[in-house]
Specification:
This protein has 38 helices and 52 strands. By secondary structure, the chain is α+β, with helices and mostly antiparallel strands. It holds the Pfam family Ig_TPPC8_1st. InterPro entries: Ig_TPPC8_1st, Ig_TPPC8_2nd, Ig_TPPC8_C, TPR-like_helical_dom_sf, TRAPP_III_complex_Trs85. It comes from Linum tenue. This is Trafficking protein particle complex subunit 8.
Length: about 1300
């Protein structure tokens, strides 16, 4: 790439060019002012030549052609170093004027990051950067240590109107107003002079001017004089299609056209003048001077001999001048001549000759410690290296060396350091070293804030253009730049840089810097009067929960000040204070489903559906509800909408959260709705006027007309509340449509300190919990359709609740309750049905007992027989209760119905009730509705009851029952008062006095007791009835009183409602309802709380009853065959005469429903098989008992003292007793029957014998009708084990004594 074609190359060809000093008379300026231009401004556009094509020969004999060339024209007063303060003010004006052009761009949205990366550099960089950099470079012009700004020629200009023009030419150059560079000796006064006579054609013909020109040529030379005629246009209305003076148009003179008096001939004359002056005067003069200086330098300084001589001379000098300005050098010194040679060669594009001379002089300046001149040479050397496109490393080294040297000079080198840094930056940009260029921008930042702001902004773009883009550094340097712009009151530039930084930080997690940018942009926009844009940015920092409390207060205070300064109320879409948690949005409406309370509306819809399946009427062919049919009759646009009833509120629950640590007040919170009747759209909003919404873009988008709620179409609720720091609050908003039509929930609005915020549900994809009814699976619909409702005409609505439903109760507690139902409508409802989710906890009572005392409902009357019937309640299938057909509810008269509550088990219990009812009005759109009730009950532990039943070994159908009771309550004591068996098959009696079991008459917390009872079956077998086996047990009944006799408590009827209903529910919970199993028994334990523990008078007046149910307690073992041995326990016999024969009887009972094949195998006491344990008798070891008195017999029969008797096994191989009957008996026993088997033993010696040495084998077989079932069981090993078995004999001890 040609270095001259790069931005730096173009800049060098414009800035390092020959300077021509212009000396003119006032008359010349008067003629030029007619065109709105000065003389220099009039000529400057024609001083830049893109192809001047002048042949040159400088240092070598090889000529080259100069194509691009430019002259810089300056008045003699401008040929001086610019004043620093004036230069700063000029730069400030440039920056301020650039900011004024940014007004339109400030209001637009900041660009996206993707757009930044895709845009070209020219589109992103502000256009005024280039102009500003040129101005910064020019602040270091006309320095003593550099000669490319020293004029190479002088253009003396006199008007034809001036008197004695020849004398005026002489006086112009001899004036005391010449630049200080000439007067101080820094510049050679012998420069090129060219004389120009200007004639204004408005003053007349040019004959006088021609005569003056002839006189000039005779005085100054023919080639050095020239005549220029201008202002040939008489009407001053010339318009130039290609305006060469476009860059000189000022805002102060917008009316006058520049160059209006110059016609085409005048412009051609200007071009020819400057072309001839450059090609025939300036360039040849510079060429000649380069050749002369090159010869002088070659003779004195080039070559090894001259270099050694120069070095030796410099080292021999006294202490050199260390002044940084280097004033020891004049224009005639060899060092100055070499610098002039190099600069002239550079401006004539002979960069090799220039570089050779710069190298030559660089060492001299370094040895002389002329640091400013040394830095200037290093700087121009780097530029020469760049234009030659040679060593990049050398170019960067020279540039950095010059830059560092300038910085070491302090304030005197600051302007040169800035210029050097800008050259260096452009050099790095040309080589795509943007990251390194950004670091140079950072280094040339001075303490002057405005200058630093511009440099930091340009550095940020270098980070953006680097590969890969460094976006975070780009944004960070923009923020640094904007902060400095703000400190210098350049607000528009500060906004521009911060907006660009926002493109980077908007999508990042760097919340603190993002808040900083938004906050300050909002402040600055407010200062400029753009309150709408300021509010939009301040809204972004309101929900700054991550900030400290002090910062949040600052943000909030400034936000409110902006609103107050605006002097009007704003409609703010998406106001983030407070924050609305849209995921918590819940819409509750009532169609055919109504709710008795808010908790009922929060229950999952699937649970309600499962309960109402048996209540809702079905259509033929499929289970559905009226809404599925009704939607088919609706218009197509409304089929996907929900249905609500006019006059009934729709509830919307929204969570508001304060993200700040500062409390905030919120007022006028309400819904935004649309209600349409026919095709007319009506927007309902009680908090805004028509004009406010009409001016708001979001509300204009709705395209609706605004009416207030007092118009009669809707009723909207409003809420005022305050949120503490970090507080969340659920707010229930309602809208009640009064007319039929289509209602749509649009959003929610609120007022916060003078600004009205609103949030539209359409702005996000809603994911919400909406209580919805059963719908058929249809095509997927938009979530916004869930916020649309078809409003139908009013229909009756049933309201209901359970009076005094408790929040807590102990397990087993039975309480009477009242269900109250009311219909406020004048239209009656009928055909009521009710279903309860947990009949185990809640039972429906009889209407007749509503006014009966609680005790009377539960007491067992004396005339009642055991086994009374249950309450005759009219029930349909699946536990649905049918209210009487004559029940109708209308008007203010409520329906009261008794209920029974029993806390069944310790848990947090949730009760669900659905009441179905139909409309009596046949013309109603809704044919039926349901009322849903929901209650929560915490059940606390009370008594834990368990039973263990053991068969009585001596009697059939009698069992020993052990009841264990533990008080697991935390603070309540109880009294057990009654134990009952359910049904007619069992009777129970107490085995011990109650006073001996519970001395304190109550169970305190954590206390446990065991009770023992005798359980007897009321069903006698055929054998028992025939043989009249004596019953040794006391009389038994279904109920046993457990409280002391001093406590007079009436018996509770466990077979009547409500205990019977609750017991049926318990049986359903544990097994199959009404299952007939003769081997199981159910118990009901009745208890009461200790009266001294009651906490209130109300509790003491109201009787409290607890019931504890135990179902399916088994009385039989795993074997269906049971038996008992009947016979004597003590026998006297004289063994001296013969052995003793004793007759026994075995009663066997078959409790199964199958025929049992039974075999009994006996074994003697000795020689028995290994399968049975030794059952041998015991013999006395005393030598002789002479007389067996009754006393002795009693001792032997009882526990004999060890000194008299010692029993031990007989080791004799002879059997102590033998079974004298058949050793094996086989027989069959009919189902559920008993039989007696006679047995006999022979005893050979006195002793106590265990007659358990027998084995009973049984096998069940079905009759012919059960063959299939038997085969099925035989195929299952588990079932086979239940069809047969082997049992060992029960222990039966017989004592045989020696008689006298």
């Amino acid at each position: 790439m040609d270095p001259a074609g790069t931005p730096l190359g173009k800049m060098l060809l414009e800035e390092i060019t020959p300077v021509v000093m212009v000396l003119r008379t006032p008359s010349v300026e008067e003629a030029c002012v007619k065109n709105g231009l000065s003389f220099v401004e009039m000529l400057s556009p024609f001083c830049n030549f893109s192809n001047i094509d002048v042949p040159l020969r400088t240092s070598s004999d090889q000529p080259y052609r100069l194509h691009k060339f430019k002259l810089r024209l300056f008045y003699e007063s401008d040929v001086r170093q610019p004043n620093i303060e004036v230069a700063k003010e000029r730069l400030k004006q440039v920056i301020t004027k650039a900011g004024e052009k940014e007004n339109l761009e400030l209001i637009s949205d900041p660009p996206q990051v993707s757009n930044l990366l895709d845009s070209s550099k020219s589109e992103l960089l502000p256009s005024w950067f280039e102009y500003l950099n040129k101005e910064l470079i020019r602040t270091a012009s006309f320095s003593e240590h550099e000669t490319f700004d020293h004029p190479v020629g002088c253009l003396l200009v006199v008007s034809s109107k001036d008197e004695q023009p020849i004398n005026r030419f002489i006086d112009l150059f001899n004036t005391n107003k010449l630049p200080s560079l000439l007067n101080d000796g820094a510049m050679d006064p012998k420069i090129l002079k060219h004389y120009l006579l200007v004639h204004d054609n408005h003053d007349g013909s040019s004959e006088k001017a021609s005569k003056i020109l002839s006189e000039m040529k005779s005085t100054f030379g023919t080639n050095e004089c020239h005549l220029l005629c201008i202002n040939s246009s008489q009407d001053a209305k010339m318009e130039h299609q290609d305006d060469p003076w476009a860059s000189y148009k000022y805002d102060g003179s917008p009316v006058q056209r520049l160059g209006c008096c110059l016609d085409v001939d005048d412009i051609s004359a200007l071009k020819d003048l400057m072309h001839e002056f450059s090609s025939k005067h300036v360039i040849p003069y510079m060429e000649q001077k380069v050749r002369i200086l090159n010869q002088q330098v070659s003779a004195t300084r080039r070559g090894f001999r001259n270099q050694i001589k120069n070095l030796w001379w410099r080292k021999g000098k006294d202490d050199p001048n260390e002044m940084p300005s280097g004033s020891m050098y004049t224009f005639s010194s060899i060092e100055s001549q070499i610098r002039v040679l190099g600069d002239h060669a550079f401006m004539l594009h002979d960069y090799e000759l220039a570089l050779a001379n710069y190298r030559l002089i660089s060492t001299d300046y370094k040895l002389d410690k002329a640091w400013k001149r040394y830095a200037g040479v290093q700087e121009i050397m780097a530029l020469a290296y760049f234009l030659l496109d040679q060593s990049r490393k050398e170019a960067e080294y020279c540039m950095e060396n010059a830059f560092n040297t300038y910085l070491k000079l302090g304030s005197s080198g600051q302007q040169n350091a800035t210029r050097c840094g800008l050259w260096w930056i452009e050099m790095l940009k040309t080589r795509d070293q943007y990251k390194e260029a950004a670091s140079v921008y950072f280094r040339i930042c001075s303490e002057e804030l405005l200058h630093s702001a511009v440099m930091l902004e340009q550095a940020s773009y270098c980070y953006l253009f680097s590969k890969p883009p460094m976006l975070y550094k780009y944004g960070f340097h923009l923020v640094l730049s904007g902060d400095r712009y703000r400190k210098t009151d350049q607000i528009k530039h500060a906004i521009r840089t911060y907006r660009s930084a926002l493109s980077v930080y908007r999508e990042t997690t760097w919340s603190y810097i993002r808040d900083h940018v938004h906050f300050h942009i909002g402040q600055w926009y407010a200062l400029l009067g753009f309150h709408d844009v300021a509010v939009r940015h301040m809204l972004q920092v309101l929900a700054c929960s991550h900030q400290s409390k002090a910062t949040q207060e600052l943000f909030l205070r400034d936000f409110l000040q902006i609103f107050q300064g605006a002097g009007k109320t704003f409609e703010v879409p998406g106001l983030q204070l407070p924050v609305i948690d849209i995921s918590s949005l819940k819409v509750v409406f009532e169609d055919q489903r109504t709710y008795a309370s808010s908790p009922a509306a929060s229950v999952r819809e699937s649970l309600w559906r499962s309960l109402e399946e048996d209540l809702i009427p079905s259509l033929p062919g499929a289970r559905t509800n009226w809404l599925d049919v009704q939607t088919k009759l609706m218009p197509k646009r409304l089929r996907e909408s929900n249905v609500c009833v006019a006059g009934e509120a729709i509830k919307v629950v929204v969570e508001f959260k304060n993200p700040l640590q500062v409390p905030i007040p919120i007022s006028n919170v309400s819904l935004i709705c649309e209600l349409s009747r026919s095709e007319e759209e009506i927007s309902v909003d009680t908090n805004a006027s028509t004009s406010e919404l009409a001016n708001d873009e979001d509300h204009q988008r709705f395209g609706v007309m605004v009416v207030s709620s007092d118009s009669g179409s809707v009723i909207l609720s409003e809420f005022d509340f305050s949120l503490g720091g970090g507080e969340k609050k659920l707010v229930e908003l309602t809208v009640t449509p009064k007319l039929e039509g289509t209602l749509k929930l649009v959003g929610v609005r609120w007022k916060f300190s003078g600004c009205v915020g609103f949030y539209t549900f359409e702005s996000i994809l809603l994911v919400k919990k909406i209580a919805r009814g059963k719908r058929k699976a249809k095509a997927k619909q938009s979530p916004l359709n869930d916020l649309k409702f078809v409003v139908i005409k009013p229909v009756p609505k049933l309201e209901g609740h359970i009076r005094s439903f408790p929040e807590k109760a102990y397990a087993g507690h039975i309480q009477p309750l009242i269900l109250e139902l009311k219909n406020q409508s004048n239209c009656s409802i009928k055909n009521l049905k009710m279903k309860i989710s947990h009949p185990r906890f809640l039972s429906i009572g009889n209407k007749e007992v509503q006014h009966v005392d609680f005790r009377a409902c539960l007491e067992k009357q004396s005339d009642n027989k055991q086994g009374g019937t249950h309450a005759n309640l009219k029930k349909a299938s699946q536990g649905v209760f049918l209210f009487p057909e004559d029940v109708a509810i209308k008007g203010d008269k409520p329906l009261l119905w008794p209920l029974w509550l029993r806390a069944a088990v310790p848990e947090n219990f949730l009760l669900y009730i659905i009441i179905y009812y139909e409309m009596e009005d046949a013309s109603s759109v809704m044919k039926y509705r349901t009322l849903r009730l929901h209650y929560n009950l915490q059940v606390l532990p009370s008594l834990d009851v368990s039973f263990k039943i053991s068969p009585c070994p001596s009697r059939l159908q009698e069992f020993l029952v052990r009841m264990d009771v533990v008080n697991k309550a935390s603070s309540q004591s109880f009294q057990v008062s009654q134990l009952s068996t359910v049904g007619d098959n069992w009777g129970i009696s107490r085995l011990q006095p109650i006073d001996g079991i519970i001395p304190s008459q109550s169970l305190t917390v954590g206390q446990a007791f065991s009770f023992f009872f005798m359980l007897k079956s009321r069903r006698l077998s055929s054998v028992d009835a025939a043989t009249h086996v004596p019953d040794l047990s006391p009389d038994v009944d279904n109920d046993v009183i457990l409280c002391p006799e001093s406590v007079k408590e009436p018996l509770v009827n466990a077979t009547h409602s409500p205990l019977a209903n609750f017991h049926d529910s318990e049986r359903l919970q544990h097994g199959i309802h009404n299952q007939k199993d003769d081997n199981t028994v159910d118990f009901v334990l009745i208890s009461r709380p200790l009266k001294s523990d009651t906490n209130s008078e109300e509790d003491s007046d109201q009787p409290q009853l607890f019931s504890h149910h135990a179902c399916y307690c088994r009385t039989a073992s795993t074997s269906p065959i049971s038996w008992t041995m009947i016979g004597p326990r003590t026998k006297y016999h004289n063994f001296s005469s013969s052995f003793c024969e004793i007759s026994l009887k075995m009663t066997i009972h078959n409790s199964s429903d199958a025929i049992a094949s039974i075999s009994i195998s006996t074994a003697d006491s000795a020689g028995q098989s290994d399968a049975l344990p030794s059952q041998g008798g015991w013999k006395p070891v005393v030598k002789e008992i002479k007389a067996a008195s009754p006393k002795a017999a009693g001792i032997i029969a009882g526990n004999s003292p060890e000194s008299l008797w010692s029993l031990k096994p007989v080791a004799s191989p002879v059997s102590s007793f033998i079974w004298s009957g058949s050793s094996s008996s086989n027989f069959q026993l009919a189902p559920r029957s008993s039989t007696d088997i006679p047995m006999q033993i022979c005893v050979f010696s006195p002793g106590t014998y265990d007659l358990s040495s027998y084995v009973l084998n049984w096998n069940l077989r079905q009759d012919d009708g059960g063959c299939d079932q038997l085969e099925a069981k035989e195929s299952n090993p588990e079932e086979m084990r239940k069809l047969s078995g082997t049992c060992s004999g029960y222990p039966y001890f017989l004592t045989v004594l020696q008689s006298v």
